[in-house]
């Protein structure tokens, strides 16, 4: 990795119950309660490793993740999601990622749209006297079990700069995903993505995933294979060579290194409340 550049940050339901209605006479059938316009859900999951856009975030160690989502029947939604991370993935002095997002989502028959923004924050992080962060806008569409989404960075991409200090805003990521229900609690999912990293050479890459899930009494067990073309050969000093620690200048100072884009298998268990 070029040490003058920071390593990349590569990045139910608590349903609100309807008020109880007065019981109908015993000789009549009580009408079903209408769903309210507000929905609040929560989620939690344990993963053998955290990969963001195909890139290791926990140095091949487990991750505990969770968050909540609020949505309104109008299509407006907001949410928060959190995970532990490793400082060597680009977050000096931090071990927590907090994502905040909001937007508008609506379905029209088999089709759907999704537009919004997301802000990635790493409490306590410091790199060249700045906290590590990233802001993106996104637009997406879906059809049945297929979905596509494009993310556009409106800040320096996770604080990264070009070799001559150029801004990396405008970095884009395209995601194409599929989730197919096989019935009896089984499902398969796939993904392919492409990162266009502005002003940083040797940092563009493609990543992909193929996985299977099984719903067991509301707990979803998953197994996925993840790989990428990200170049992380540490013997060649490639960009996606991550150490297990970074200092506040973005320089690797850990005793161990890894190819952060290498192929891996991830086992997970999660639940939505």
List the keywords:
disordered N terminus; mainly beta; two-stranded antiparallel sheet; globular; 273 residues; single chain; Porin; 0% helix
Structural class of the secondary elements? mainly beta
The overall average pLDDT, rounded, is 89
CATH top-level class:
Mainly Beta
User: What is the 3D form?
Assistant: globular
- Main sheet summary: 12 strands, antiparallel, barrel
Number of strands: 16
Strand composition percent: over 45%
Assigned CATH superfamily: monomeric porin ompg
Q: Helix coverage percent of residues?
A: under 10%
The main sheet orders its strands as: 1-4-5-6-7-8-9-10-11-12-13-16
Radius of gyration: 21 Å
How large is the count of helical segments? 0
What would you say the CATH architecture is? Beta Barrel
How many domains comprise the coordinates? 1
Instruction: Find the CATH topology.
Output: Porin
Could you state the order of secondary-structure elements as H and E?
EEEEEEEEEEEEEEEE
Poorly predicted ranges? 1-28
- Termini, distance in Å? 41 Å
Your description of this structure?
It is a single chain. This protein has a single domain (38-272), classed as monomeric porin ompg (Porin). It has a 12-stranded antiparallel β-barrel with strand order 1-4-5-6-7-8-9-10-11-12-13-16. The chain is globular, with a radius of gyration of 21 Å. Helix content is 0%, strand content 50%. The protein has no helices and 16 strands. 24% of the residues are buried. It is mainly β and 273 residues long.
């Amino acid at each position: 990795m070029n040490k003058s550049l920071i390593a990349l940050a590569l990045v139910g339901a608590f349903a609100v119950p309807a008020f109880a209605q007065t019981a109908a006479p015993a000789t009549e059938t009580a009408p079903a309660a209408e769903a309210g316009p507000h929905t609040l859900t929560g989620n939690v999951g344990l993963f053998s490793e955290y990969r963001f856009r195909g890139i290791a975030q926990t140095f091949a160690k487990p991750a505990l993740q969770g968050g909540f989502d609020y949505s309104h029947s109008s299509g407006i939604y907001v949410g928060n999601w959190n995970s532990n991370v490793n400082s060597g993935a680009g977050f000096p002095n931090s071990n927590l990622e907090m994502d905040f997002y909001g937007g508008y989502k609506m379905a029209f028959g088999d089709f759907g749209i999704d537009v919004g923004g997301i802000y990635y924050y790493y409490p306590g992080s410091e790199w060249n006297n700045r906290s590590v962060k990233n802001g993106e806008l996104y637009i997406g569409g879906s059809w049945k079990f297929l979905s596509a989404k494009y993310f556009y960075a409106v800040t320096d991409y996770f604080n990264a700069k070009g070799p001559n200090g150029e801004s990396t805003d405008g970095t884009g990521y395209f995601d194409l995903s599929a989730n197919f229900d096989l019935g009896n609690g089984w499902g398969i999912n796939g993904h392919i993505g492409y990162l266009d990293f502005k002003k940083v050479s040797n940092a563009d890459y493609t990543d992909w995933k193929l996985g299977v899930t099984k719903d067991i009494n509301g707990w979803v067990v998953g197994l996925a294979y993840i790989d990428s073309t990200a170049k992380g050969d540490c013997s060649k000093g490639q960009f996606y060579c991550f150490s297990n620690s970074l200092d506040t200048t973005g320089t690797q100072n850990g005793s161990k290194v890894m190819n952060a884009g290498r192929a891996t298998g991830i086992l997970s268990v999660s639940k939505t409340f």
